[in-house]
Structures are given as C-alpha cells and as structure tokens.
Amino acid sequence: MPLCFFKECSKKTKTEDQEDALVDVTSPARGKEEKGEFHKLADAKIFLSDCLACDSCVTAEEGARVSQQNAKDFFRVLNLNKKCDTSKHKVLAVSVCPQSLPYFAAKFNLSVTDASRRLCGFLKSLGVHYVFDTTIAADFSILESQKEFVRRYQQHSEDERALPMLTSACPGWVRYAERVLGSPITPHLCTAKSPQQIMGLLVKDYFARQQNLSPDKIFHVIVGPCYDKKLEALREDVHAASHTLQGVDCVLTSGELLQIMEQSDLSVKEAAVDTLFGDLKEAAVWRPDGASSDGYLAHVFRHAAKELFGEDVENVTCRALRNKDFQEVTLEKDGEVVLRFAAAYGFWNIQNTIRKLRRGESPYHFVEVLACPGGCLRGRGQAQAEDGRVDKALLRQMEGIYAEIPVRPPETSEHVQMLYREWLHGANPHRVQEALHTSFPSPGLAASSLDIKW
C-alpha cells in the first residue's frame, strides 16, 4: 500500500491503527482545478499508509496514467475485441498474485484451488484468453535475491554500502525509498526485479514468442492485493528487454475484481488456470515460505546459511521484537552471530529501521521490508472495510487460508530451471541481468526527508 509523503499532513485523526490516520491529500496547486475520477476517489478516503494522490510522490502524468488502470480500461479492451476487426483484437492475459487467492477463497467460501478455478472461469466468460498465477515470477525474484545477498555478504568488507540488503518486492516501499529517502538508502535495495515486473516480461516476451504473438497484441492485467501495484506498472525498466512495451498494461486490486464479479450476471463454469508453457495439466497452487509475504526472508536465510556457512536450516523461526511486525532471526556459528535477518512491516517499523541504517547502527545483514503492517495479505485493495479500517475478521480468515497453501522452495521448480536454460540462454549473466534485475535511480534527497511530521 502506498505511503503518504507529505512532510506535514492535515486532518489527522486518531484511529485504532496509528498508521491509518486520515490525511487530506489535496494540494494547494491542485485545489481549484477540476480533478479526474482517480483523484476524486483518492481524496475521498486516504490513509497515511495508502496515499496515492500526494504531489510529492505521484506526478500529474503518473496520476493520469494510474487513473486509467481500472475496470473501465479492462472492459474497454474486452469490448473492442467484440466490436473491432479481428486484426485489431488484443489477446487478454490476466495474472493473479498468490496473496489475492485467499481473499477470493474467503469471499466465495471455497478452497484456494476451487476459488482459483471459479475466478479463472469468470474471467474467461468475460472474454479473457489466458489466466496465470504469478508464483513462477516470485520464484525467479527470490532465487535472484538469494544469489545477490550471497555476493553482497562476500563483498561486504570491500563495499560498506553492500549491507544490509533491503528487499525490493514491495512497490510502496520501493517508491518511498526512491522518492523520499534517496541515494543514502537506494544502494541497499536488492536489484532483483519484483514478481510483478518479472511476470510482465514472462508474458510479453517468453509467452508471446511461444504463441507467435507480437507483444503489443497482448493486453496484460495483474490482479493483486494493493494499489501500489498500479504505480509499479509505470516503472520504465519493466520492459527493458523489449525496449518498446511495458510488461503490465493494467492492474486491478482483488477488491476491484470482486466488485466486477458481484455486478455480473454471467453464468460461470469453473476453468483450470493456464500455464505459460501450454501444459494441459493444471498447475498446483503453491506459495513461498512466508506467513503473509512473498517469503524472501525465509528463503534467503536458508540459502545464505547453506552457501556461506554450510548450515542446513530446516525451519526459520523469527521472534518478535518491538512489535509483531518487527521480527528477527539469527544464525550462530562457534558462538558468534554470523547472520542477522529482520522483517520490518509497516511505516513506523520502516522508519525506525532506516534511522538506524543512516546512523550506521543497523545490526542486520538483510531486512525484508513491506509497506503494509501485517504483510501483503493486508493490502488495502482487499483487506479494507467500508469504513476504511482493516477488516480484521476477513484478514484472520485469509491468514488461515494462506497458511494452508503448500510451500514449495523455488529451487525445486522444473519450469523455472527450464526457463533459465531456454529463455535466459543457460542463465547467461548478461541475459539474466537484463531480464531479472533493475536499478534504482534516486533524486539524492536531503537527509531531512526522513524528518516527516505526522
């Protein structure tokens, strides 16, 4: 969920969750102008932890482009396919994030697998051609993060800014780091692309080639738990391999898609989720190892313990420190702590982590950072009740459903290994760097940018 970047916010109200204090995002420069639908919506209910309309973060051009990522744009393409000449038709592909499936399972009162099939059947009844899940993209992101951490750890004595490595899969956190924190922090961001970025490239590059399609013939939609993914779709380097097309054309939150389903009177038959490989057999539903996230901390910790110290760690057990959203796990060897990892979820934990890092006091080698308190399942696109607060009953239900999804280590995916061989030319370093890694240019903001007054 996005973070509000105003140095001072008005209309603050005390709420059950300190991070959810309401703010007024209307800027003086924009106050008298006629606002688009997006900004009207954003101004109606904005929280410190999910502000999308702040001028300090979203430019006018970005705001206009984000406003187009909604159900209207989705139906525009669906309707064009029904009306226009077949030569102008788009192939519609929808990729669903694993953190969205528990939401639909809870809402439909179904298992995750059955909810996935119903969701797929509904989308295809609308006119969507392919429905994928993004787990394979998360596998790539985790694997590249593991390799990068080991490299950074080994080079730490030569490069003081190599550690701690901060995860970069959460778009709200990445935008905050780039737009507010700037150059003191961005060198610590992991360069592995996020699952959404990688999925965009898999669909527009690999899958397009498999189907003998031009990438511009594919309209790719992501369904995810938070609004930040709409902003992430605007990142320039998402389409680095194609140089002309962005990997994701539209992002719908889980809640937006559910609203479409509730307003539809279509007769829906369940359908199996597609794979990028044209397999007839339906892929099983898997998740990374993480209670409410993409599982970077657990997977990277195990990999680092084995690669750096020859230790096999079966269970990664974190302990909560200052609160349940700040947790730590360590590895000791010969009485010395050799790995110290942390998870920092939510704005206040992020602020505390960054302050220590900037003062040179961070004790950590790796920090998994997520903008949402409680992790990805709590994204505002699916866990928010009508009054703007988190729907705690729904969230507990989603957490229980998510915990029951089987965990699969990304190393064991045969499809991932096949893609390294075929799509990435035998894991050619240049090709891997181009396809799976990014960079984080920053404005080099002043240190005072951390001193935000709430």
UniProtKB/TrEMBL annotation:
Keywords: Nucleus, Phosphoprotein. The keyword Nucleus applies. InterPro entries: Cytosolic_Fe-S_CAF, Fe_hydrogenase, Fe_hydrogenase_lsu_C, Fe_hydrogenase_ssu. GO terms for cellular component: nucleus. It is found in: Nucleus. Pfam families: Fe_hyd_lg_C (PF02906), Fe_hyd_SSU (PF02256). SMART domains: Fe_hyd_SSU. Gene3D superfamilies: 3.40.50.1780, Fe-only Hydrogenase (Larger Subunit), Chain L, domain 3. Residues 388-444 form the Iron hydrogenase small subunit domain. The keyword Zinc does not apply. SUPFAM superfamilies: Fe-only hydrogenase. Its main location: nucleus. Belongs to the NARF family. Interacts with LMNA and binds to the farnesylated C-terminal domain. This is Nuclear prelamin A recognition factor. The gene is NARF.
